[in-house]
Amino acid sequence: MAVNPSSVPSVGGGRLMRVSPRGAGNGWKAALFMLPSWILLLVFFFVPIVLTFYFAFTNLSLTGTSSSAVTFVGFRNFASMFSDPTFRVSILRTITFLVFSAIIGQQVLGLLLAILMNERNRVFRSVVGVLVLAGWVTPEIVVAFIFYAFFSDQGTLNTVLGWLHQKPVAWLYTFPMTAVVVANIWHGTAFSMLVYQAALGDVPKEILESAEIDGAGRLQRLARVTLPIIKGSIATNVVLITLQTLGLFTLIYSLTGGGPGNKTETLPIYMYQQAFADYQLGYGTAISLILLVIGILASLLYMRMLKIDL
Amino acid sequence: MPRVSRFTLDKVLAYGVLALIGIVFLVPLLWMIFASFEPNATLSITFPRSWSLANFAQILQQPANQQAFLNGLLLSLGQSIVVVVVAGLAAYPLSRYQLKYKRPFMYIILFSTTLPITAVMVPVYELFVFLHMTDSLWWTMLFLSASGLPYAIWIMKNFMDSVPLELEEAAWTDGASTLTSLRRVVAPLMVPGIFTVGIFTFAGSWGNFFVPFILIQNPAKLPASVTIFQFFGQYGSVAYGQLAAFSMLYTIPAVVLYILGQRYMSAGFNFSGATKG
């Protein structure tokens, strides 16, 4: 993280920056103030990232001979990873989980809630809002228990189906991916709802009104006016939620454990199984490197989209 | 006439869909609430015949659970304090001084806020084993602090930018040192920011399962988030009522903190607007 001062553009961009009255010579003082955060970030954040790139190319393991003698194995971890059908399946599971729970589920439901709540009765709006927020505030592990009970054989969902004269379904065995997707939508939608509520609040009323005068219907105004205006918020929110969902472990691990079989084994679960259940730390690190690289790319995309002037 | 009826239809449809979504969100929660007050609870949802506190009492009376809540409190409180102090110190020069490396530093901070922590847990575990730091609440707390720092520095800097420099100049004229003016002038004006960062750090830490699950094995040192998971594995299938009560007890602090945090968030949201992008 060496920074070459001459290559750095002047600070503040267009913003007028007041020079500290204490004048020059603040460099060492600034460094001293930032030292504790530098140390913490270096030891616990940047060193592990560097270690990921190193250990991913070793045969490090928790047991056996290689636990004491770590050897460089080149791309062997990656070669065995790409020839392992379980890995390919887990990539597929990750994409399925991501698309249905985060991109389709949370975005569509969050946007729908924000649109429907716009200009509705305040009490009604806040009651529904609180119910959606309850899912967000509930810790992931509790979300897993709640949905374990909800989807269990004698659980709430089958009780409701019974009222409708339907046969009970063994949800967690027959449709485990649906179960984790639903649980994650329940847990995560509130965030998108809040983001879209804020975004809708920024849509100028005059534009909507003039569109209405011009004869645009409700759906037309949404598709032609509102959505184009808030598309920036949608894009950044999709990337942000993707990043969060990519690293999701607790909810899936405690609801299904990645099973039955490997039906809900996303990348983080696969990584955990290889590194900690099978003691193949080097191989596990290679999987985390894949996660890390996807994460880094998505982070860079996110930062480009924000277009913040620092 | 058709215009009016269309308008009411729209309205009814909107309220109907909203009500339906609300109910769908409420229903999964009901099992936990009902079961926690029912000593003989099963996985099926039943309205408790007599609202009993027996499940809560049983969970709270076990010394292991008390220890777990205490461990969770130590981790979360420790992390919040470290994060607020360290991020506050780092935010000061970033907000007040003209620094050559400010822009890249802020970019690194922003970049770090979004990286999934899951991706580095395997190497972090290796680091902890190598440095003999596993099974330690202290080191786990410091790792959690580091993972929460980027977001905290970002928010703190934005809050600090809104504190007028003139007030500090007055303190400097009176001979106060930078650290004194930070503590006596800037910090009191940043109470909403400090509470926002502190509360959200605490809530995030309280709900974190993965990090202590990987870094701590000693049962006596596990926080409630992991103990509750093990309780489910050991007694869950026989004592659903207790599991529900445990879950409720564990969730309540998160709810309370969120409500508290909301108050400070709305007070400070206008000047932390930069995070919305």
The total tally of domains of chain B equals 1
Q: Name the CATH architecture of chain A.
A: Orthogonal Bundle
**In total, how many beta strands of chain B?**
0
The pair of chains with the biggest contact is: A-B, 108 and 93 residues
- Stretches of chain A where pLDDT is under 50 for at least 5 consecutive residues are 1-24
What integer is the average pLDDT of chain B?
Answer: 86
What CATH first level of chain A would be assigned?
A: Mainly Alpha
Please state the second-level CATH architecture of chain B.
Orthogonal Bundle
End-to-end separation of chain A in angstroms reads 19 Å
| Beta-strand content estimate of chain B | under 5%
Strand content of chain A: under 5%
SSE blueprint and pairings:
The complex is a heterodimer of chains A (310) and B (277).
Chain A: H1 27-55, H2 76-83, H3 85-117, H4 122-137, H5 140-151, H6 156-163, H7 171-174, H8 176-201, H9 205-213, H10 218-246, H11 250-255, H12 267-277, H13 281-306
Helix pairs in contact in A: 1-13, 3-8, 3-10, 4-8, 5-8, 8-10, 9-10, 10-13, 12-13
Chain B: H1 2-36, H2 54-61, H3 63-96, H4 102-114, H5 121-130, H6 137-161, H7 165-173, H8 178-189, H9 191-207, H10 210-215, H11 224-234, H12 240-268
Helix pairs in contact in B: 1-12, 2-12, 3-6, 3-9, 3-11, 4-6, 6-9, 7-8, 9-12, 11-12
